[in-house]
Amino acid sequence: MAELAQGKRAFVIIALIVALSALAGLFTLPPLDRDESRFAQATAQMLETGNFVEINFLDTERNKKPIGIHWLQVVTVGALSDAEAREIWAYRIPSMLGAILAALACFWGGSRLIGREAAFAGSALFAATVLLGIEAGIAKTDAMLAGATTLAMAALANLRADEKAGWKTAMLFWFAIGLGTLIKGPVTPMVAGLAIAALVAWERKLNWLKPLLFIPGPLLAIAMVLPWLVAIQIATEGNFLREALGDDLGPKLVSSHERHGGPIGYHLMLMPLMFFPAILFILPGAGRLVSAIRGEDENLAKAARFLIAWAVPTWLVFEILPTKLPHYVLPAYPALALAAGWGLMEIAKARPWQRWTSWGLYAFAALVFAILIPVAFLIYGNNASWDAVRLSLAGFQSGFSLTAQPETAAVIALVAALFAALAGATLVAERLKPGLLVLILAIASGLAWQIAIRGATVPNAYAMRLADQVRAARDYSETITGIPASEIITASGYTEPSLVFSLGSDTVLGESADVLAFAANRSEPTMVVLDLSRDAEWKQFLTDPFPLPYNQTQPMQEQLDRLEICHTSLASGTNYSRGDETVLAIFFTRCQADAGLTAAPVEETDAGTDTAAPQQSRAVQQRVQATMLALMMMGFGPVETVLAVSDDADFNPEILANTNAQLVSWDAFEADDGTLRPASAPYAVVYDLQAAPARIDGDWRFGGCGAELVGTPEQPELIVVQYNCAE
């Protein structure tokens, strides 16, 4: 390990670990709700308007956090992408750089405190932790905050350990204080201030703080923050500080703000998961701190006191604080990681119970993650729901997946197995041969977690990508309405920030009545999105209107008629911010005369037959498949044979794609000798009623044991009937 910790090589290795951890999901994860999309949207609006002082989400002032992360995102998006492209990865680059800064500063400060090898081990473990990797790949403040705070603490450690550190190190400290304040207000000054106060109270010494009194240092921090603070106060007429302190920070100090509460001990309970894989050495590290304080080596005792003063007061503040989120304690993680690295390097001095307890904490976290990876994919890998099926039956173009892709499931299983194998190998190595091998395996297990969850599982969790589904529906707007996707206005009752970021700053949000009224008052095509999970009345009307009285359905139908709807689609999944199963009904209004689904071009073969079906056929195909799914979900058993019965020579066989269907005429079906219809196995028949409407009678189920209409009872298009139902 000594060779790896030498020279620039150590910095490169540590930075590479962080980069690999961040990149696992940086390009593949969709825009996340809610904070990431709010930050990214506010930055996009800065680029669109040229106003780099105020922070806005649509037309609402966002006076919660300072401007720093937005300025950094402006730089990376401007250099690597643009606001119109809505590429979330470009907004995440500052977070990755902040995490790299945090890990490198941890190594720099740790080398002064506990020696280069122990600092390398601790910083490498910190670089691979679950929490740092998550924050490194999300476009918000916390990874850069960790970078600024760790840089400040590393400079402080060097000032305290070396009387010759001088004004340059002091200036670096104050720069980090200014940067941290611009990123997230008082957190960085609080962490540094608590550590200084704890050390002064503990050691009764002040001399080491003299370099911090170098006047240009505090002036630098003030110059970094004050000009923008004055500008934003003027621009918002004093609202920024009033809302940031009174409406955001204040409530967090006295109650569980925005339902983010938890008991004292919340962060400690999450530590095995969030601090994985460094949790494997945390108790040996804590034991090493205690023994150093009790020992005769004053330098080691000073280092131990510094790490304790860094981590413990900050941790206690966030444990006592009523509002709790897992990432709040991230600024304390570098100190804990350095203690863990110290514990690894001197593992032979650890007591057996310390090693076994840390081993158990690591094993527990690994087991939880090994179960979580496939279970998360099973739950969110497809987004079929009853409401989605019912909307599809009502004519909405299907936007749901019945099953997860087998090849994707195989990849998830493979990465889950890889993670489990690396975690198991780490546990074995810790017991047999602790040292460089176990450090490498522990880091590899941390990276494997990032790849498995953030690189594979969540990006393929289709149910969690509602905004992406809506954006995919909008991509067809030019075919449907004649308006390019980038120009069509969306009015949405689904109000999650990810949708706004995905669709653009012209998105209109509101309740169902508001967005319908907005679309009705426009003469141009509009995409309307109704969130049926938040509007029971519209959900009932669109999915199952028959129980509703006429005086309730008629006004709703009139509202839709005023929109001149030309196409309908749907999105289905889970709103993970609220924990609700969600189905979105999507309408395109007032299509232009030369656009629309009925105008889809028809190609001909040399024989003159149609080879490209109108898009209505694909919609009917999806509705037939959804009807078959509904029958099976109702308990009628799997469909083994499907027959299409029609007298229409133009009946489109594409309607029955992905089924083992045969197309026969009514007469052939009625006169069949039994070769087409199984004697006992469950099967379904698709009857084409538009070609032979006279054949429908009062009992439209045709003697079957289960049936579903494609269309309505008043205007049926097809009937799917199940026969020989399974018991």
Explain what this protein looks like in three dimensions:
- The termini are far apart.
- The strands form three sheets. The chain has a five-stranded mixed beta sheet, with helices on both faces.
- The chain is 56% helix and 9% strand.
- With 727 residues, it is α/β, with parallel strands linked by helices.
List the helices and strands and how they pair.
Layout: H1 7-26, H2 35-49, E1 56-57, E2 60-61, H3 68-80, H4 88-114, H5 116-127, H6 130-136, H7 142-161, H8 166-184, H9 187-203, H10 216-235, H11 239-254, H12 266-274, H13 282-294, H14 298-320, H15 333-345, H16 352-380, H17 386-393, H18 406-432, H19 436-457, H20 466-474, H21 477-481, E3 489-492, H22 497-503, E4 508-509, H23 512-520, E5 526-531, H24 536-543, H25 550-563, E6 565-575, E7 580-589, H26 615-636, E8 642-645, E9 661-664, H27 666-670, E10 683-688, E11 706-711, E12 716-723
Parallel strand pairs: 3-4, 3-5, 8-9, 8-10
Antiparallel strand pairs: 1-2, 5-7, 6-7, 10-12, 11-12
Helix pairs in contact: 1-4, 1-5, 1-6, 1-19, 2-3, 2-22, 3-4, 4-5, 4-6, 4-7, 4-15, 5-15, 7-8, 7-9, 8-9, 8-10, 9-14, 13-14, 13-15, 13-16, 14-15, 16-18, 16-19, 17-26, 18-19, 20-22, 23-25
Summarize the structure.
The protein has 727 residues and is α/β, with parallel strands linked by helices. The protein has 27 helices and twelve strands.
Poorly predicted ranges (pLDDT <50, ≥5 residues)?
A: 597-614
Q: Give the radius of gyration.
A: 31 Å
Average of per-residue pLDDT values: 88
Secondary structure tally: strands: 12
Structural class, from secondary structure content?
Answer: alpha/beta
Shape: globular
State the helical fraction. Answer: 55-70%
Biggest sheet architecture: 5 strands, mixed
Widest beta sheet: strand line-up: 4-3-5-7-6
Q: Distance N terminus to C terminus?
A: 66 Å
Number of helices: 27
What is the beta-strand fraction?
Answer: 5-15%
